Amino acid sequence: MIHEATRCRDIPLSVYGLSWDQAAGRACAACGKPLTTGAVSRGWWYGNHGNHRLDTELWVCPDPGAAQ
Ligand SMILES: [Zn+2]
């Protein structure tokens, strides 16, 4: 689904349907890979689901080539 040339920082994100790790910034919000160093912030995202506030800062993988 994700092309090699596609950067996670360019993939449209949603606060809905994220895993706990993604919502907590421990995993890429685009592809779900665990983040280590060089993660790129996509900024704060806001949403509500019933009584639950989903405000969170989302992080994605570094650009391909920038890592390693
Ligand atoms: Zn990613």
Overall average pLDDT: 86
Radius of gyration: 12 Å
**Span from first to last CA?**
23 Å
Strand count, sense and barrel status of the largest sheet are: 2 strands, antiparallel
What report would you give on this structure?
With 68 residues, this protein is mainly beta. It has one domain (8-60). The chain is built from 1 helix and 4 strands. It has one helix at 20-23, and strands spanning 40-45, 48-49, 52-53, 56-60. The mean pLDDT is 86. Zinc ion (ZN) binds at residues 8, 28, 30-31, 33, 60-61.
Tags for this model:
single chain; 68 residues; mainly beta; two-stranded antiparallel sheet; 1 helix; 22% strand; elongated; binds zinc ion
How would you briefly describe this protein structure?
The chain has 68 residues and is mainly beta. Helices cover 6% and strands 22% of the residues. The protein has one domain (8-60).
Sequence-ordered SSE layout with sheet pairings:
Elements: H1 20-23, E1 40-45, E2 48-49, E3 52-53, E4 56-60
Antiparallel strand pairs: 1-4, 2-3
